[in-house]
């Protein structure tokens, strides 16, 4: 395994093509290559997020997710091959349920803001959505059986989880710049806050 990468600058891609895991060469603009690139970008954003102060449980989860994303990318690299296990999707479902249960109900849409770690989680969330769209586009373009369902499901759950983790990280407030969700200032929210203030005033 240690000798799998023996040369980085191969120059074989100078013609605008790249190699897949099955030995075929395709254009770098190919939908499969685009999906692989989005997954790679997502993993890189998680690497940046892991540089931040994080609760231990969140850090452990994201490290596992990084490894699963590497498996996902490997699966996309080899048409028809299965590498990402069903347990990977189940693990995200369980983490999503656990972390979401500890959060208060949302009053309105929230902005991708707060602590730096929460903002980075939101960036990763949007890249996960793009990667999911890329996998869906690839699935629709390829013959049946060439793209498995697990990668699409994993990316869908991961984007949801990253939204929830952004809320968790704002409350963890490990950099002292957060503490709560940053709500979009909609008319509905302003109305609700005004009604709450009026009720509080009458109660006093």
The structural domain count equals 1
CATH superfamily: Cobalamin adenosyltransferase-like
Number of distinct beta strands? 2
Share of β-strand residues = under 5%
CATH architecture descriptor name: Up-down Bundle
Radius of gyration: 21 Å
Your description of this structure?
The chain is mainly alpha-helical and 204 residues long. It has a single domain (24-201), classed as Hypothetical Protein Ta1238, Chain: A (Up-down Bundle), CATH 1.20.1200. Helix content is 61%, strand content 3%. It has six helices and two strands. It has helices at residues 31-49, 56-77, 86-101, 116-141, 149-172, 187-203, and strands spanning 17-19, 25-27. A two-stranded antiparallel ribbon has the order 1-2. A hairpin with a 5-residue loop joins strand 1 and strand 2 (25-27). It is elongated and about 75 Å long. Residues 5-9 have low confidence and may be disordered. Belongs to the Cob(I)alamin adenosyltransferase family. Residues 8-168 form the Cobalamin adenosyltransferase-like domain. It catalyses: 2 cob(II)alamin + AH2 + 2 ATP = 2 adenosylcob(III)alamin + 2 triphosphate + A + 2 H(+).
